[in-house]
Here is the input.
Amino acid sequence: MTTMTSATTPEPAALLDVRDLSVVFHGSHGDVEAVSEVSFSVRPGEHVALVGESGSGKSVTSLAVMGLLPTRSAKVEGSIRYDGDDLLAMTDHERRDLRGAEMAMIFQDPMTSLNPVVPIGVQIGEVLQRHKAMTGRQARNESGDLLARVGIADGSRRLGEYPHQLSGGMRQRVLIAIALACEPRLLIADEPTTALDVTIQAQILELLRELVSGTGTALVMITHDLGVVAGLCDQVHVMYAGRVVESAPRRPLFARPRHPYTGGLLRSIPRLDAPRGEPLTPIPGSPNDALSWAAGCAFAPRCGNRIDRCTSQTPELAAQHAYEPGYEQALRCFNPIGEETS
Amino acid sequence: MTAQLPTLPTGPAAGPGDGATVVGESLLRGAWHRLRRSPLAVAGAVIVLLFVLVALAAPLLAPYEPASTQWAGDVTPQSVPGPSADHVLGLDSFGSDMLTQLLYGARQSLIVGVVSTLLGLSVGAALGISAGGLGGKVDTAVMRLVDILLSIPSLLLAVSVAAVMGQSQLSVMIAIGVAQVPIFARLLRGSMLSQSRSDYVLAAGALGIRRRRIVLGHVLPNSLGPTIVQATLSLATAIIEVAALSFLGLGDSDPAVAEWGRMLVAAQERFGNDPRLAVYPGVCIAITALGFTLFGEALREALDPRQRR
Here is the structure.
């Protein structure tokens, strides 16, 4: 029911294919379903965005793909295929060999994602030694080149510096260098610009775009910032309360959002061309108001398009006619924008 | 971070970027800069340094041979000869030169303090690292053992060990070392556990770095700060405990070894009419312990990440 009607579109085999992913955390207050029924795929060279606010399950999804969720407290079900291999059937050892070499991740906060007491050169060299069987010397030379590639001038001289000597933007560059050191085929970026100054954000995004487009690396961008999506991504999946509510290619999503939540996200972006003094249009309520998906739509309490059915019946993710071939387009809503029934 | 620049020894002209070789400034170096600006740290460091120098140079500084009781005949049950031209601080209750005994006592305190702290540190660190690094059942087993050790007052533990092993310098060291094991084990495990939850550990995991490497190369170096501080503070405790064990008659029984605690014991009976005998070794113990404590506390503040700018 959640699979896409992709039979009509001949497309290259997906590098990453996530089907019916669910993640349940066993907590002291009972089980919490953080992610469920999440399906998406990423082809080589494609840039896919997972969009949603905090708690929507987008980070948990990415950690599940990487295999970084605690095995004891998190139960991951469904299937995650990488290059045809089922990641969930692999041993910890096999997955560890993939991480860093085949798939890498950039984290949100560059201030804390680098080890404060280890020089950056060692932190870059470490992954090269681990996956490329380099000697310390080779790794050191390569690390200097990598720093130069991410735009840190005089890279080889700065290998001895510690993270606290670098600015936030520089640290994120170092983290990108580390993530891309072994030329992974899949890069997951979890809000890579959220913790940075606005001026730096653009630089980092541009750098990311350059680096991944040059190598055909597939990119999964986790973000709540639709501006990032507009500049970088081909396919967008909007998540709310652990489920995908709308999937669409970038252009139709921005031009004609269907799900009221997507519409709300777009309307809440401040616009330069809006008349001065016009109030912003936030989505009412907060994600804490979300219901579980068990009894109706989780977005219903905050939704302007709510109809009676929304609170009594759970909407399914239904495949839509694809405006652009090769893309996934789907919607989870009874009363989408533009087709209101009442 | 800019506030640190003027204190760099090379001056502002050699800031990062324009020098020929840019050397990274480690956290320890940052801590060093902060340490030098704290008067308490400097005071503590001076005392510690003096103590170590005196201990090392005791044979050069001391006017007489240690533990030679050649003036024992001058000591009467009523009085011990006080300061004179030959004996700057007078004699002690055994008829030895007081100054000589104090100097050699420093040597003894340093040896026993350092060895027992190293012992406690190494065993405690091994336990703490295996508990914090391996987790699970190892963690539970190690921590229960540590809980048992911690439930016994440290001096009582040291007394028991000394009583079982007999009176020798080695047993004093082991006794005091064993009493310190649980402190180090618990401290290191705790800081390793909290570091394990940090982002850079997750990031290292995302790179496929092996667990062993993450624990030893990333988690451990970040957990050492509190341990270094504790080791400094433990030296103070050890020096006091050496004296305490001697005072209780469980110390090194070799009379040829000068020891502050035993000097105190001997001074006890004469305290009423000759307090000098107790004051000198007492002050030595107090000042040395104070020095290590001051230095340790200052080190704690200097290494505290919240103080970092």
The mean pLDDT of chain A is 87. The CA atoms of residues 195 and 315 of chain A lie 35 Å apart. The longest strand of chain A covers residues 30-42. Residues 198-215 of chain A form the longest helix (18 residues).
